Structures are given as C-alpha cells and as structure tokens.
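User:
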Amino acid sequence: MAARQPLKLEVQDRDLAAEPRVPARESVAAAGILQRSKVPGAEETPMTSPAAVIVLAAGEGTRMKSQTPKVLHQVCGRSLVGHVVPVAQTLNAANVVVVLGHQRDVVADHLAQFFPDVLLAVQDQQNGTGHAVRVTLAQLADQGVQLTQGPVVVVSGDSPLLSEATLALLL
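Assistant: Predicted structure:
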C-alpha cells in the first residue's frame, strides 16, 4: 500500500466583508427543471437530478414517549414524513425511497395512502444512518432497481421544515 501524502493547506487572510456576496442557489425552477441560479462570473452548470432520495423513517422515537411512530406525528395537519416526501419528490429523482423499521406496517399503510409511488425499504435493526443507506441500496439492487448516474440524497423523515431550496443546495 502506498504511503499517504501529507495534506497541504494554505491559509489566506481575507476580508470577507469587502468581497461581493454571491446569491444562494434557487430552488426548483419553473417547468420542474432543476438549475442553479446564475452567479456572476461563474460557469453555468445544470443541477444533476439525484439517482435516489432516501428518506429515513425507521427510528422508534423513544424520546417522544408515544405509541405513534415518530414520523406519523402530525404537524400542521400532516404527518412529519408527509411534509418530507413531497419536498424530496421535487428533486425529480429516479427513485424516492422511504426506509421503514419501527412499526413498519403502520408507516407503510400511511405512505401507500398518500404517496403510493414511493419505494419502501426495511431496516430490521436500526444501526445508524450509514447502515440504513447500505440496507436500502442493497434492497433496491435485490428488487432489480438500477440507480442512474447521480448523487444519492439522504434526508430525515422527521424534518417537516425541510425545503426545496435546502435540498437544491445539496446538488
């Protein structure tokens, strides 16, 4: 195995207040096409639609001290996961996959009622985010789902304030 080369860092003293502000990327544009906002002097590159968006919804939510699965708690008339899935769908990913675990049948029924087009993956043991992603990708492969080129975006199913603009910044 080749020896690792030391990382060389160059520190520059800059006055950030004197530099022009660069606008943040905008969210989904009209006609459902993802694109970045124009940054002065920057080369324009289109956003890549993700190969998949994985929504983590397997957790037990023990701190909530409730019999209701955490992602099914209501906020403003919708379940927590009911806020997240539509935002995930705005990325036009080839696949939106929800990872189920605790009370998976109840959560699956809810998703089937409101989001019948999402794919489901099951994480029998909740061993962290990385494990959930690994299990999900393996189950997709077992089901014959081939991921297209592009990033895989992972979001929490209990984040009702997640926005299109935030997800667009990840791409």
